[in-house]
Amino acid sequence: MNHTTPTPNPTPKSRSKPGTDRVGASDSQARGFWTGRGGLIMPAILVAIAIYLSVGIAQMAVPDDRALFGPKIFPMITIGLLLAVALILSIDILRNPEQPTRIGEDLSSNWRSVGIVVGTLVLFIALLETAGWIIAAAVLFTGVALGLGSTRYGLLIGVGFAISSSIQLIFVGLLGLSLPAGVFGRF
Amino acid sequence: MDQLSNLLNGFWQVVTPTNLFYVLIGALLGTAVGVLPGLGSAMAVALLLPLTFSLEPLSALIMFSGVYFGGLFGDSIAGILMNTPGNSTAIAGSFEGHRMAKTGRAPQALATAAIGAFTGGFLATIVVVFFAPSLAAVATKFGPGEYLALAVFAFVATSAVVSDSAIRGLAGLAIGLAIATIGIDSVSGAQRFTFGVLALLDGVSIVVLTVSLLALGEVISVASQVGRPDDRSVIPSQGRPFLSRAELREALPAWLRGTAFGIPFGVIPAGGAEVPSFLAYGTERTLDKRRAKPMFGNGAIRGVAGPEAAGNATAGTAMGALLALGLPTSATAAVMLAAFQQYGMQPGPLLFERSGPLVWALLASLFIGLIVLLVLNLPFAPLWARLLKIPKPYLYAGIAVLACFGVYAATGSLVDQILLLGLGLLGFVMRRYQYPLAPVLIAVILGPLAENSLRDAMNNSGDNPLTLISSPITIGLYLLLALAIAASAITKLRARQRALADQR
After folding, report:
1. Residues of chain B neighbouring A74 (CB-CB closer than 8 A)
2. Mean predicted lDDT score pLDDT of chain A
3. Looking at beta carbons, which pairs linking B75-79 to residues 24 or more positions away fall under 8 Å?
4. How far B402 CA sits from the closest chain A CA (Å)?
5. Do the Cβ atoms of B23 and B376 come closer than 8 Å?
6. Smallest CA–CA separation between B346 and chain A, in Å?
């Protein structure tokens, strides 16, 4: 993931610039094209949404399609807005790549932690209706806390089960909401 | 004096031990969620919505009035003690508030904020009691053209005028409008963008959207910053939590001025209290400079009093606009709207006729919520700060569990859990690259209103676009919007020129 890793140590050239604490644009050659341009993911998301809407409009079955201002017009306006904003954003990001505003500031993301958190959420979704709320939520708590840098496995699992079971007790037992019982439902 | 007798009836309904208990619980929980770093009042309402599902509508609404103001106050506690305001509306108050805390006057800063929030909210709610019914009466004459103008005003104001970068705000707006069109089209009955997924027929629930963008997005965002130096620290709040007479006299004019700034802005769909709270802050600072001994920069009590009162006054009248027009003017109000609809209350011009008793009970409980908060927070505000000391992994793991639980309890569908994750990732990307989230929420909330008004207006007039600007109200709104855009463009250009000049 090198495109989100800016140079950790600024070049001497930028440090010597008087009267400003910004990293100069002159050191951008030293970095890859994607450095500071990871923000292009946003225009990409906007274009993806526009494509989703376009496919949806093409497939839409409208009972009475005579009116000009039917169910398709507003999504069409939205597509126009999405594409226009994506275009302007892309030009802006290509021209002015993101730079640390202070020397030495680290803009990179900790992808390991993000991966653990997102993976835990996927696991939670898989477990929720198979293993049940109590297990799934305890896994969720433990996984997210591990992702955020805690290492006290035993304590985390204990706290996780305490939280998930107390939610189950209060909301299902006392207030009558329904949560998936999962494996506990088979007894 | 119809309003007074109605309000008294409202109090009569509300003041029972059970209901007072719900206000108290709501205020406690709302403040607790508001205090948590990164979570604000909108989140408080969204996360606590499922809590109220097993309650009677009246009790649930009463609890929400506590949550609503409690969440706002929680935002300020985090701002004053940690310099991390939970909501953009609490930023202005935390400048001087955090300085007061640093110089050992944290309890007084919190007390100033609490009394300011009370003053602003109380006066604004009085205004709502007297004017909301007349506002609703005016609004019954609104046609599709007027509603479209209001929605467009809200869209442009939140995305382009209030946010730092107009294009980033518009990106959020476009995403929100796209999400808003998913589901069955209410006019033609056509299925739109569901691709056969049954859970999408009703569209994306506002609870799923808020919880994912605000809470889960924050959790992932915190994860992405693990290992970075963390300079956030909590300043302990010790000492007398009450204000001396001199301090009261000092703060009183600022509370009143702040309230005066806040009240009109609640009705304007411009995304909440950012503008009035900063206006109040700026005014207090200008007035301070003229005094013999300027206090700003060293923790000025007026710098806390003004913005806090303005923020809550806006929240108060925003409730009025929500009830009378059905128009949410801030993200928090937008989630409140979803909550009301869950209980079969449809805010709008006809609300006062259709569900009169319920509305007056709600207004009465707003007053009670404010009083409960004042009683609760004046002596106990420092206790809330303890929540900020929970280690990050536990705090955010707990928030993630609550977020998933909240969404499952609200919708009971696994598809919504997948949506929660997807939109949570979107929220993370938007945070990472500094896109404002409020325009997404406003677009999803008002998107259907804008779309249906546009289609009604055009279909009724034989596709004549001039019908959209055919009444004084619509022309006035569009003119006001043009003025706001021009004013914000000029200030932004000036700020840019100044920044360029500074660099040279």
Report:
1. 177, 181, 450-451, 454-455
2. 79
3. B75/B34, B75/B40, B75/B41, B76/B110, B76/B113, B76/B117, B76/B308, B76/B311, B77/B31, B77/B34, B77/B35, B77/B110, B77/B113, B77/B381, B77/B384, B77/B385, B78/B34, B78/B35, B78/B36, B78/B37, B78/B388
4. 9
5. no
6. 24
B463–A61 C-beta distance less than 8 A:
no
CA A128, CA A109: separation in Å to the nearest integer? 29
Residues in chain B within 8 Å Cβ distance of A144? 219, 223, 393, 396-397, 400-401
CB contact under 8 A, A53 and B193: yes
The pLDDT of B146-160, averaged and rounded, is 84
Taking an 8 Å cut-off on Cβ atoms, the answer to whether B191 and A60 are in contact is yes
Whether residues A144 and B414 touch (CB distance < 8 A) is answered with no
Whether the predicted pLDDT of A100 surpasses 70: no
Q: A92-122: buried (b, 16+ CB within 10 Å) or exposed (e) per residue?
A: ebeeebbbbeeeeeebbbbeebbebbbebbe
Q: What is the pLDDT of residue A74?
A: 92
Domain locations in chain B as residue ranges: 2-223+243-453, 472-504
- Quick: pLDDT tens for B210-266: 889 888 998 999 899 887 766 566 666 666 667 788 888 888 988 999 899 888 887
Least confident of A1-5, B26-30, B188-192, B195-199: A1-5
d(CA B220, CA B427): 9
Band of residue A1 on the pLDDT scale cut at 50, 70, 90: very low
Judge whether residue A9 has pLDDT over 60. Answer: no
CB–CB of B392 and A146 under 8 A?
Answer: no
pLDDT digits (tens, 9 = 90+) for A142-161: 999 999 988 888 999 999 99
CB pairs under 8 A between A and B: 204
Nearest CA of chain B to the CA of A101: how many Å?
13
A7 pLDDT above the threshold of 80: no
**Would you call A147 and B223 a contact, using CB atoms and an 8 Å cutoff?**
yes
